[in-house]
Amino acid sequence: FITPSMAMHKTKQYIPILAGLLLLGGLGIGRSDSDDLASQATLRLVAERGTVTFAEGAVAVRRLDTGWEPLYVGDRVGPDDAVRSDEGGRAEMTWERPNCIIRLERASVIDLESAAVGGRLMMIGVRLDRGAVWARAHRTFRLTSPYVSATLDRATLSLRADVSSDRLAVYHGTAQIDGLPLSNGEGVIVGDSGTHTFAVGVEDDMR
C-alpha cells in the first residue's frame, strides 16, 4: 500500500535524475555541434603549387617549418614558400593558377605570398629580398621589394633590388608602382635619393 506522502517522496527522487539526464543530453548535443564546427574550421585549403621548369646551379627552397633544401627541375613549389639562388644559380617556376611565370636570377632570394581564394591557397605575389626577378602574370599580381610595391595585371616586368635603390622595368602591359602608372617600355628607380623614371634599355632585358 502506497500512501500519498510516499508517492510524493518517490516523485522528488525522480526529478533530479530526469534533470541530470536532460543536462547530459544537452551537453552531448552542444559537444557534437562544437566538434562539427572545429572540424570545419580545420579543413585545409588546397594549395595551388607551381612547377620548376628550369634550374641552373644551386637553387634551394624553404617551406613552412623546414630549412633550406635543394630545388630541381620538376619539383613543386608551394604558394607560400621561399626560393633562393647562389652566385651561379637561376630558376624558372610556372603556375597554372594563377597563370604566371617567375624567373629567379643569380644571387637572389624571393618570398612567395599567398591568400585563400575560393577554398584554395593561391600564390598572389612575390617579395624580392635581394637580387633580381622576372615575372609574367595574366591576372592581378603583386611584386614588392624593400623600395618598390607594384601591382600588375597581364604584364611582363623585371625587378632588381640593390643596396640603396630598386629598379623596375615594364616590358609589356601596365603596372602601378606606389600609385605611379607605368606601361610598355617604361621603368622606375625608387631609393634613398627619391623616385626616377627611365626608358627600358638593354641592361634591363632579362627575357
Spell out the key features of this protein.
16-stranded mixed β-sheet, alpha+beta, 207 residues, 1 helix, 51% strand, globular
How are the SSEs placed, and which strands pair?
Layout: H1 4-41, E1 46-47, E2 50-56, E3 59-62, E4 68-70, E5 76-77, E6 82-85, E7 90-95, E8 100-104, E9 109-117, E10 120-137, E11 141-144, E12 149-161, E13 165-177, E14 180-182, E15 186-191, E16 194-199
Parallel strand pairs: 1-10, 10-11
Antiparallel strand pairs: 2-5, 2-7, 3-4, 3-6, 6-9, 7-8, 8-10, 9-10, 10-12, 11-12, 12-13, 13-14, 13-15, 15-16
Summarize the structure.
By secondary structure, this protein is an alpha+beta fold. Helix content is 18%, strand content 51%.
The tally of helices reads: 1
Query: In angstroms, what separates the terminal alpha carbons?
Result: 103 Å
| Largest sheet geometry | 16 strands, mixed
Instruction: Give the low-confidence spans.
Output: 27-31, 37-42
Beta percentage is: over 45%
Mean pLDDT: 84
**Radius of gyration, whole Å:** 29 Å
Secondary structural class: alpha+beta
Task: State the share of residues found in helices, binned by percent.
Answer: 10-25%
Could you tell me the number of beta strands? 16
- Oligomeric composition of the shown chains: single chain
Please provide the ordered H/E string of secondary-structure elements: HEEEEEEEEEEEEEEEE
Overall shape: it is: globular
